[in-house]
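re: ur question from yesterday

yeah so i grabbed the chain u mentioned. its 468 aa long if i counted rite. heres the sequnce exactly as i have it in my notes:
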Amino acid sequence: MASAPPTHSVSLGQIHPLRERSLVPVGMATILPEAAQHVRRLESQLLAHINRWGYDEIILPTFEYLDVLAPGLEPELIEKCYKFADRTTGRILLLRPDATAQIARIVAMGMMGSRLPLRLSYRATVFRYEPEHAGRDREIFQVGAELIGADDPTADSEIITLLIECLQQVGLRSFRISLGHVGFFKGLLVRAGLSPEGQKRAEQAAARKDLPRLEEILLQERVTRTFARSILEAPELCGQAEVLARGRELAGNEKPLVRVLDRLTKVYQLLCSAGYQEELFLDLGEFRGFDYYDGVVFDVFADGVGVELGGGGRYDHLIGRFGRNIPSTGFALNVDRLFRGLNLSGKTSELARVDVLVVAPRASAKQLISVAGQLRQSGKRVVQQVISASGKDLINAAAEAGLRAQADTIIVVDTVETKRDQVLMIQQRTQRSAGRENGRPRMNKKTMSITDLVARMRRTRAGAERAR
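ran it thru and got these structure tokens back, copy pasting raw so excuse formatting
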């Protein structure tokens, strides 16, 4: 949804000609009406399904004090934050860079009470500076869920199952979830004796699957050849259950590594028993982009989208940065990338359709407003329009306006064919010949009272609701 670099095309109908790029900050979104209809419906579908699992929506603040939120943000993310001074206090504010850190802060402050577990959902926009050449958005639309206060494989499988069901609910058919545990690769690094700085650099290289860089770091850290082989093999350990078997061979008798693999195995088995084996692949080099993850983690990928649609994982110590540790897990979906994965660009949204177009000559503006208002109360999507025409020209002009608005029903107020308390209803369909549209509209006209019209519209809506 955000504007892309010059060599990339935009996905949601933003301002895109290169000559206009200077008018819009790079990486910020301008979502035009047709795409906006899809986006809002997508967000609503996701939140509705998450709510059915018992997750309650929370609305997060757009601004945070830097010194308050900083404990939940790693230094690299703080560098990417948009910061400015609070005009009242002089303290540094930042635009929300991460929703999970905000929720951790809110829970730690006791704002949610003491009842656990908590199930929370959100839709939020996060803001992070990215270099223009990186091809990443700076304004990111997210929908997510957090399960706080539960620490067992069932909780991990719940949040992953919820993610899978969300994707299925919105119609995404071809996707895979990369499932891993950050403790495995970190445990290999600790066993090999890397320095804290070396561990961080090795983790970053592994997250990018940059094996030459990883090998270079291991040489710099003077890691033995045996340990180096295990570390270099881990990022490429991807597949199904055989990955876990090979992981145990690499773990040997190291209890921390064995515990990690036991946890990952239990989560994997729970998901497979639920019928999700085809959607999963194991990756023992899996890392998320935030250093607060410390357990089972996952990313989701879809055909046709070159980056992850979202992901999440366990962060048992993040809330502890603001207070006491509370075991937690969650996920976030990038709505723009999900939009691309669903290939909705260019498709007409049913939500954008006009149910009824009400037209009248300028002299009848008051009656136009009254009729349109009554029809909206019946639950219809109604557009009102004044037309500079009269007599038969008014009816023809109304029909043409209805075609432009893609409205099957047109209500004409104050025509030569109607009395004061009546309107003319026109229903038109494009005629079809041999299965193809020939562009000739067929009009059915009927005069009726305003009272009968409103009653008819209400009956139509009630019938549609029963059909659902």
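noticed a couple things. The CA atoms of residues 175 and 197 lie 35 Å apart. also Confidence is low (pLDDT under 50) at residues 1-11, 431-437.
anyway ttyl
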